[in-house]
Amino acid sequence: MAIDFKEYTKKDIEAIEKKMETPESVVLCPRCGKPLTYYSADNSCAVECPTTGCIHGSVRGI
Length: 62
What we know:
Elements: H1 10-21, E1 37-41, E2 44-48, E3 56-60
C-alpha cells in the first residue's frame, strides 16, 4: 500500500519536485536510495520510486 502524501517528509517532497523540474537529472529516493523515474504524457507527468509502495507524485495539466 502506498504512503499517504500527507505523511511525506520535506525531503520526500523536495526530491519529487526536483525530479519534476529537471527530469534528466538523477535524483535518489530519500527513503530507499533508488533513482526516481520520470514519466510524461501529453500535459501530465509523474515521478515515482521503483520500490513498491514508496514515494510518488504526479501533476495533471488542463
